[in-house]
Amino acid sequence: VSAPVVTFLSDYGYEDEFVGVCHGVIAQRCPAARIIDVTHGIRAHDVRGGALALRAALPYMPAGVHLAVVDPGVGSERRAVALTTDDPRRFLVGPDNGLRMEAAALFGGAREAFDIGRSPEVLTPPAATFHGRDVFAPVAAALADGVAVQRLGELFPPADLVMLEMPRPRVEPGALIAHVLSIDGYGNLSTDAAPHLLLEAGVALGAAIFVVCAGGDAGGRFVRTFADAATGSLLCYEDGRGALALAVSSGSAATCLGVSVGDELTLRAL
Amino acid sequence: VSAPVVTFLSDYGYEDEFVGVCHGVIAQRCPAARIIDVTHGIRAHDVRGGALALRAALPYMPAGVHLAVVDPGVGSERRAVALTTDDPRRFLVGPDNGLRMEAAALFGGAREAFDIGRSPEVLTPPAATFHGRDVFAPVAAALADGVAVQRLGELFPPADLVMLEMPRPRVEPGALIAHVLSIDGYGNLSTDAAPHLLLEAGVALGAAIFVVCAGGDAGGRFVRTFADAATGSLLCYEDGRGALALAVSSGSAATCLGVSVGDELTLRAL
Amino acid sequence: VSAPVVTFLSDYGYEDEFVGVCHGVIAQRCPAARIIDVTHGIRAHDVRGGALALRAALPYMPAGVHLAVVDPGVGSERRAVALTTDDPRRFLVGPDNGLRMEAAALFGGAREAFDIGRSPEVLTPPAATFHGRDVFAPVAAALADGVAVQRLGELFPPADLVMLEMPRPRVEPGALIAHVLSIDGYGNLSTDAAPHLLLEAGVALGAAIFVVCAGGDAGGRFVRTFADAATGSLLCYEDGRGALALAVSSGSAATCLGVSVGDELTLRAL
Complex ipTM, two decimals? Predict the structure, then answer.
């Protein structure tokens, strides 16, 4: 029998002891649990960025308790939640702010929702500003330890869960309007558009493209991978998340185009 | 029976192989050990910042060997130490520079001190500039593996341990003088003052405050959590460490106030 | 019996889910595997920096599958490889771009080379830009799980492996010409020169030195460790990798000298 798994994503960063403390809490409550860090480098308070990283990661994670904390509303009236899914071995735990919606959809959506804010597992008194340590980590560990979710919170209708508003790409005659959803460590831009939308906008694989954004405009090419573009040139491709993305070969598209997360991009055949 | 635990904190950062190499050394000497990283993002050579993070983290960590290395004096005459505490399952290992003093106090103070610089476990010859790998990690792993601490070093009086000088907050008529002890990834400032000192200085929870620092001054509010302050406004609150802290809602207090670790702050009722 | 070990180095960084996803893939394919992260902070696309970190780390790592991915050519015709070494318990897995050459030499060089690009373990269809997840992690996990390497790829001559070009230090009359190979989180500069070359250039341990680089020049001292130099002064020493290195005591040599990775340095007796 494998160890129970807790996956853990947050915007806590790596500068201080926040992530380590949550590991400690989980290890104390469920010593057998194996913790897999998804990332803790989500931009501070970027719930949407966290939701996208979680959606991209969970299909590759063993079934278990999926703890995710990006929580600008910590200490407010926002709920703390544990969700069940169509996969009875998978639970989603964290603040009720939409962070889990994209990931839950992968497993049939949130089946049941439990308010865990007053769970008997909560470390008391919980700090008003660190529910990761005092609420989410101990409840996640209890779930990993086999405690029934019904004993960890109060049932409420999943329809009451906070939804996350996401931008939507659109195809116009001869153009695709997309939005930058995230920027990785290489400066590559992942968008909200699926690659087939670029085909719908009249751009064939291999064709030259023209990109317009707030920071200016640039010519590039729609290719399969980095090596298909000349060093220093802009390329448009399908990234590991299955999304249309922009990169500069051996460079940073974020810097070259001067764009930020949330910016709109217009892509056309050249 | 649970696996033996080694917790690990350092200022090695994440750019290179230093942390990974120490994990490897521990895994070779004590394959059963579970390593929990507290953080490796302590500012380079910031012994005081490391001491505070360690103190904040250890109450949440399983008992075990607590390895911590922030070591600007590596290779000099400073001692390498292993400390016992009132909890016979907890050991503190690292350079003798005060890094462990705050954490040791949580467990009754250093009960016995051992100089491990010439331990039979040391990788020989130890590099003059990487005692984390060659001295501290192997000794920590041997302790986790059950070797008696008496066999790992020479006893010396705990009174000879290097102490760490810490700033002290003070209450003056109508004002609290505090100091910035650390800045987290959100730009929140944790101080050396306990929240009740602000009450003693005449500021009630919910009241408006005025903060003066080297970078200028700003008005804010003494509240319970981030959501109690308007977006972009300054707030003063009790943080997860139990310390009085300053934040800017959805922003960075460090940037807004222009302060650094060690800076003095004056807080008054407005 | 210890758990099988997979060590993992990459330039994926800590901002997004790339590292976590690879952990998930390995945990699903070989739940018993223990994963040791060497570092994921290698500079983007810096194959040489990755090769040096891998060489510095592997002597301290338990035998196992050594996964390393710095892969600017992902999706191109470059091979994906698994290498065997003289140590039958050690395998090296990743893109064929020289990243493994320095590390393989530690274990007698690449004994056999297997092209794993069409391994039955590959997640299909592999994304053109994320072979870490779809090719390297699953093959590494299968090796850790005990699958014979012959079943994971097609044998080809190790002589066909891509070699990495490395700079070479040289001693001239009264001077050592060295190159900056990496810069750590403290701003310390590790060079391609062994410390004995400085002795050959006429600089004795303890002597004053003069360093010339693109950013200017500076005086310092050839010492054993940081504490042997005055605060704020430049020192030259043998670092944890066994290489000649430059540091500024309680400061950053990279900043003070204004140098970057790859820069040439000239060191002379003052």
Answer: 0.95
